[in-house]
């Protein structure tokens, strides 16, 4: 990869330099998708800065990263280069590819940015081969917005699970659904080359929930096809970076909070001492009341 200027993170288009949980969420989706694209012709919709298309190009036969933003396309072409990777500027409502020309369409966090969701999925269906695979993600409105009170200014139309499934059902009868969310866990890993089993305990007040679902669906990640999927994927897929960078950001926030708290307590202590001086205390109280 060439060393190029960074694109600014606007809150809409993710960039790899962005810290916090959003980094894990975005990279996790592409880490998951890379497992099913080997030897395939892939179209990465709303490829943005380009990091995801580049990841997929390390495993796929070919990858086209497509985005409507000219600056993002220019940046991606300069920064992420591979012999089987190219980028095109286009709308997901008018994909400039022939019918049944790609094996896999990847569309992460695109659907909620459009009102024409049915039309977009119809375009995906058009360019996918009959045995093609769609890998798509979108926020779950119930947990992303309703439960948190959060309103994303860039989202045009968020969906509940049944609404999302209704749209997918029109073209793809076979689906495999995953929930995605950030969560804190303490992990114990057996010392062996590969892991194949999984168990869990979740403490809910004083009750242990053994081997139950771990998370609520902040996002859905769905694999959909007209044919039986026939893909051997695990029930649980974890993503982490070895440096555990999210803890660096978390600890920085905690340290800042402690620092401000200490400064507040020091000021309060000085204030309380001044109030104990009879005349000076009355003067301090006077100005506070004013």
Model description:
With 290 residues, the chain is α/β, with parallel strands linked by helices. The protein has 2 domains: 21-183 and 201-240, Vaccinia Virus protein VP39 (Rossmann fold, 3-Layer(aba) Sandwich), CATH 3.40.50; 247-289. The protein has 8 helices and 9 strands. The strands form 2 sheets. Strands 3-2-1-4-5-9-6 form a 7-stranded mixed β-sheet, with helices on both faces. Helix 1 runs parallel beside helix 2. It is globular and about 85 Å long. The N and C termini lie far apart (62 Å). The model has no long low-confidence stretch (mean pLDDT 88).
Q: What keywords describe this structure?
A:
single chain, 290 residues, alpha/beta, Rossmann fold, 2 domains, two-stranded antiparallel sheet, globular
Number of domains: 2
Radius of gyration: 24 Å
Q: Which homologous superfamily in CATH is the superfamily of the largest domain? A: Vaccinia Virus protein VP39
CATH architecture annotation of the largest domain: 3-Layer(aba) Sandwich
What's the number of helices?
8
SSE string, helices as H and strands as E: HEHEHEEHEHHEEEEHH
Main beta sheet = 7 strands, mixed
Give the topology, please.
Elements: H1 21-33, E1 41-45, H2 51-57, E2 62-67, H3 70-79, E3 85-89, E4 102-108, H4 117-127, E5 128-139, H5 141-146, H6 161-169, E6 174-180, E7 201-204, E8 207-210, E9 219-225, H7 245-275, H8 278-289
Parallel strand pairs: 1-2, 1-4, 2-3, 4-5
Antiparallel strand pairs: 5-9, 6-9, 7-8
Helix pairs in contact: 1-2
């Amino acid at each position: 990869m060439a060393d190029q200027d960074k694109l600014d993170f606007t809150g809409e288009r993710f960039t790899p330099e962005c810290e916090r949980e959003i980094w894990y969420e975005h990279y996790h989706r592409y880490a998951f998708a890379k497992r099913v694209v080997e030897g395939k012709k892939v179209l990465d919709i709303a490829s943005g800065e380009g990091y995801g298309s580049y990841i997929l190009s390390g495993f796929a036969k070919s990858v086209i990263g497509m985005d409507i933003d000219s600056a993002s396309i220019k940046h991606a072409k300069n920064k992420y280069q591979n012999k089987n990777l190219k980028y095109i500027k286009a709308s997901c409502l008018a994909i400039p590819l022939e019918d049944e020309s790609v094996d896999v369409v990847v569309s992460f966090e695109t659907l909620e940015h459009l009102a024409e969701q049915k039309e977009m999925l119809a375009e995906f269906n058009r360019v996918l081969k009959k045995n093609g695979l769609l890998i798509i993600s979108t926020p779950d409105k119930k947990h992303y917005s309703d439960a948190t009170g959060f309103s994303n200014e860039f989202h045009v139309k968020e969906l509940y699970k049944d609404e999302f499934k209704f749209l997918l059902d029109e073209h793809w009868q076979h689906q495999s659904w995953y929930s995605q969310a950030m969560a804190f866990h303490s992990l114990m890993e057996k010392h062996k080359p590969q892991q194949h089993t999984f168990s869990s305990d979740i403490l809910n007040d004083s009750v242990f929930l053994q081997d139950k679902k771990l998370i609520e669906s902040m996002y859905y990640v769905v694999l959909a096809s007209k044919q039986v999927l026939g893909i051997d994927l695990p029930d649980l897929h974890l993503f982490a970076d070895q440096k555990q960078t999210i803890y660096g950001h978390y600890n920085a926030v905690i340290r800042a909070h402690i620092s401000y708290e200490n400064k507040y307590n020091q000021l309060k202590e000085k204030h309380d001492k001044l109030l104990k001086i009879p005349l000076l205390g009355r003067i301090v109280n006077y100005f506070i009341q004013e």
